[in-house]
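From the shared-data thread, chain only:
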Amino acid sequence: MTPREKFIMAIEGKQPPGRVPHFELVFYLTMEAFGRVHPLHRALGQWDQMSKLERELQIRDMADLYVCQAKRYEQSGLMVHGIANGWSDYDGEMIRLLGCIREISGQDYFLCIHGDATYSLPSGEKMMEFVEKIADRPQELRDRAARNVDNALKAAARYLAAGVLDGFCLCSDYCLNTGPFLSPTMFDEFVTPYLARLIAGYREMGFYVIKHTDGNIMPILDSLASTRPHALHSLDPQGRVDIAEVKRRVGRQLCLIGNVNCAMLDTGTDAEVIESARYALRHGMPGGGYIFATSNCVYTGMSLRRYELMLDVWRKEGNYQ
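Structure, as tokens:
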């Protein structure tokens, strides 16, 4: 079976043969690993100044880099990013990048991109404005949420027509380490119905859907599961999310992705990294429906050696009999 086929088995809640599939939301350490700049760190603000040839060369090099990453670290799925603040999806650059990855690797890897349209935890500078609208103009927020979903589904139709994409990763973060920004009641008013409609629309098109959010999701776990994503990422232990409890509560409803503690990878001991990876595998693997990953991403500044140590545990202990 190809890595993509195994990934799809897991995301559908099944148990693929052999090793548990591996995925990362972002792998930023491309300079350390390959001596090449990550796509999100390239040409920021300069994309529009590039000639057609320059853009094509960048796209082909980025596609090759994604495939190199997947091969070296045995990633079954790839979250594909464009250039930060530089992509215009309607101009076709993202579709071209996905097409190039397919040209190089065929159908070997599961490909997904950002696709969330729901409200995320607002930034500090916009937090008061958001809170004031909840209190004074809630219908305006509801109307905008509905429009955002409509626009996302229209964009998805372009990817469906191109035939280069397997699914979407919905990356609106809802939670702090202490809990969700919105109360569960407010979450069910301003997020849940729109998330459910977005996921249903993607599913109707034949796309797979991964819902990502960091932090303590436990107060809204049942609401998230009710919207029917295929998978839930990142199961953040820094937000007191225990994969064993999540597996018990919703493991039959959706696939779980993640839970290897990024704090341990960054500042913990080797022994703590090993134990975190083992814990995620021990409680995520039984019965299938699990994909191995960190509890966020492999971010800039993380030790590449620590990431490779995590993978050593996975290679030795992440195998179905």
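The domain at 3-317 is CATH 3.20.20.210 (TIM Barrel).
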